[in-house]
Design brief:
Elements lengths: L5 H7 L17 H7 L48 H7 L1 H7 L3 H9 L7 H7 L3 H5 L18 H12 L11 H4 L25 H6 L3 H6 L35 H6 L14 H5 L22 H4 L53
Helix pairs in contact: 1-3, 3-4, 5-6
This protein binds heme C (10 copies).
One heme C binds next to α3, α4, α5 and α6.
Length: 357
């Protein structure tokens, strides 16, 4: 929606002085923002950062400090110069209101000493003089929507200029990057949709569900971890920005991911159960299952994928003996194999290597 001030705003663009007419500054100072803002780093080993400036150009996942904010480069309008936020706002009053809550816009206004409050819009959208002259010509301003003329790499490059490294060090080559996702498929810094993370939807899970509805649906099965209940998110196990492991798993192996919350399954055990050590997914589906305890198959079929009746001391493993068979064996009813082999993840019990109680 454009107000009638268009002509006046266009007139404003002549000077091209990025320091002209700064917006009324936010009541908060740069120091306030440094103190209250979350760290742009998902790594747990990130060191506390007492000198943001010193790290400004290091590939360590820290965002660029506000007083070093650059104006984004737009290859489709290489001659354009910065015109300042005030000019943008003259034509885009609505977006300005929508974005005033945003940490980015507020922070750039309050603290962009290098470029002045002018940078509040152009630090992301690139220099605006050409766009202000020809507003309807696509490409002259960096736009972040799918139908925009701005190439997806340029879009992501704007964000990565401040947010490369850290959780995003494997973005290039990641399955999402290769499938032409942009940062703004999951983030919308212009609107207040999520409580944190400036996401494109109201929660992490909803953001992922926009494309992975099938996976989200599995969490509605009878057995699931408390993700629908809001106590977990997809990002507890996945790093959507890219990882070196398959399936965007956050840690080096599936098991390490599970141990983060299920430390008791890590052991050490005197008597280990080989498939548990190898991969929890030999028996569990992390996204949900209609069997008990996220199992991929009901017991005893689960066990019988790998264990035949050969070796077991009796005739337990016949079809007739199943709970639903003509001659149910009471040892296959209910907890079946687990009645006796209770310590299925491994055992320190003196009863020995068969995981008995
Ligand atoms: C597939 C979805 C998705 C894409 C694509 C994506 N992100 Fe994220 N991003 C997330 C989610 C989800 C979180 C919240 C993670 C959390 O809270 O653990 C997040 C968190 C962040 C954070 C704050 C936490 C941190 O790591 O410091 C930044 C900054 C960020 N993303 C930047 C980017 C940039 C830059 C791009 C593009 C190169 C991008 N994201 C692409 C989903 C995505
Ligand atoms: C003279 C008025 C005017 C000024 C000044 C102006 N814009 Fe625009 N802008 C427009 C109009 C009109 C459109 C809609 C173009 C269309 O729909 O074809 C637009 C569209 C946009 C878009 C969406 C582009 C797309 O391809 O989807 C963005 C982003 C944008 N403006 C950002 C800015 C920023 C940032 C500034 C300041 C540097 C700015 N505008 C200054 C009038 C203006
Ligand atoms: C942190 C980077 C960032 C900053 C700072 C920023 N924007 Fe945006 N802007 C975006 C992104 C990303 C989108 C695309 C949002 C979406 O997914 O719809 C966008 C969209 C827009 C659009 C197009 C809206 C539409 O519906 O297509 C306009 C206009 C716009 N911004 C103007 C501004 C103005 C004016 C300012 C300064 C007050 C500003 N932006 C500051 C990142 C930014
Ligand atoms: C000029 C530098 C700069 C640019 C460009 C920039 N950001 Fe940021 N961003 C920051 C700073 C500074 C913070 C807040 C401090 C922090 O979290 O380290 C931040 C915070 C974030 C957060 C975390 C917010 C939260 O609530 O946890 C996300 C997500 C994010 N930015 C995404 C983006 C995306 C997507 C883009 C591109 C559209 C982008 N940023 C462009 C500097 C920038
Ligand atoms: C805009 C659509 C979109 C969004 C949003 C999205 N993804 Fe994806 N995701 C894809 C596409 C496309 C692929 C590649 C094709 C496929 O495997 O389905 C993919 C693949 C994946 C994979 C499989 C990786 C592999 O190596 O095969 C995982 C895991 C994943 N996404 C997790 C997430 C998570 C977690 C979120 C939310 C933070 C998310 N995605 C949000 C589109 C999306
Ligand atoms: C408890 C950890 C965990 C949570 C929570 C989780 N995942 Fe996964 N996800 C995994 C593991 C482990 C794999 C690897 C599966 C495999 O290798 O068979 C995986 C695989 C995937 C894949 C690719 C393979 C497939 O099954 O299609 C996608 C896509 C995916 N997850 C998306 C999501 C989304 C979206 C969410 C949130 C709704 C989510 N995941 C929540 C652990 C998790
Ligand atoms: C972010 C923490 C977290 C991670 C990571 C995690 N879990 Fe869980 N898991 C939970 C919580 C919370 C519960 C519910 C505990 C309860 O209800 O007492 C749970 C429950 C379970 C259950 C029992 C479900 C039931 O219906 O009884 C299984 C099995 C399970 N998780 C397997 C896994 C596997 C396999 C992985 C790795 C792919 C994993 N978990 C990773 C938090 C996590
Ligand atoms: C050989 C198959 C198998 C493997 C591999 C396996 N589990 Fe299990 N898991 C089970 C069975 C069977 C149950 C149900 C136990 C019951 O009902 O007493 C279970 C139950 C659970 C539970 C629910 C609480 C409990 O202990 O009863 C959690 C949590 C769990 N497994 C986590 C894991 C983790 C983490 C891994 C990987 C380190 C893993 N499991 C590997 C078979 C397996
Ligand atoms: C993915 C294959 C796989 C599944 C599923 C599996 N196991 Fe195992 N199990 C093994 C392997 C491999 C060993 C180690 C055999 C060895 O050391 O000779 C083993 C060892 C055992 C042992 C100890 C055997 C001995 O000689 O000491 C018992 C008891 C056992 N499993 C019971 C079960 C039960 C009960 C289930 C179902 C809840 C189950 N297993 C599911 C592969 C599996
Ligand atoms: C009534 C208790 C009981 C039930 C139920 C039971 N087992 Fe056993 N199982 C045992 C005992 C006792 C041993 C040890 C026998 C020995 O030491 O020779 C054993 C041994 C084993 C072994 C090691 C066999 C070997 O080669 O020495 C495996 C594997 C095994 N059981 C798997 C299973 C599976 C799979 C099921 C479910 C289909 C199951 N058990 C049900 C009591 C039981």
């Amino acid at each position: 929606m454009l107000p009638a001030t268009t002509a006046q705003a266009a007139a404003n663009t002549g000077g091209g002085n990025p320091h002209a007419d700064p917006l009324p500054a936010s009541a908060l100072t740069t120091e306030d923002f440094k103190r209250i803002l979350p760290r742009t780093d998902m790594r747990s080993d990130a060191d506390a950062d007492s000198h943001p400036r010193a790290h400004a150009f290091l590939d360590n996942g820290q965002a660029m400090p506000f007083d070093a904010v650059p104006i984004a480069k737009n290859p489709l309008a290489s001659d354009a110069i910065a015109i300042g936020a005030k000019s943008c706002v003259a034509c885009h009053a609505l977006e300005n209101v929508q974005a005033s809550h945003s940490l980015h816009v507020q922070a750039f206004r309050a603290g962009a000493a290098g470029t002045g409050a002018a940078a509040a819009c152009e630090s992301c959208h690139g220099p605006g003089s050409a766009h202000a002259k020809y507003p309807t010509k696509p490409g002259l301003i960096i736009a972040f929507t799918r139908d925009a003329k701005t190439p997806i790499d340029t879009q992501a490059g704007v964000c990565l200029a401040c947010h490369k490294g850290g959780a995003r060090q494997d973005w290039i080559g990641s399955v999402h990057q290769q499938h032409q996702l942009g940062c703004t498929d999951c983030h919308n810094p212009m609107a207040k949709l999520s409580a944190e993370g400036v996401l494109a939807n109201n929660s992490i899970n909803q953001t992922c569900a926009a494309c992975h509805q099938d996976i989200r649906n599995k969490f509605n099965r009878r057995s699931h971890m408390p993700l629908p209940e809001g106590q977990m998110s997809c990002a507890d196990c996945h790093n959507p920005h890219g990882t070196l492991t398959a399936d965007l798993i956050k840690t080096d192996t599936v098991n390490e991911t599970c141990y983060a919350c299920h430390a008791e399954e890590r052991g050490p055990f005197l008597f280990e159960h080989a498939p548990v050590r190898e991969n929890c997914l030999a028996c569990h589906d992390p996204h949900g299952s209609n069997q008990q305890a996220l199992l991929t198959l009901p017991v005893p079929m689960l066990c019988q994928q790998c264990h035949t009746m050969t070796g077991h001391p009796n005739d337990l493993l016949t079809r007739a003996g199943l709970a639903t068979g003509p001659a149910p064996d009471e040892r296959l009813i209910g907890r079946a194999c687990l009645t006796c082999h209770a310590n299925i993840h491994g055992s320190n019990n003196p009863s020995g290597s068969r995981f008995h109680k």
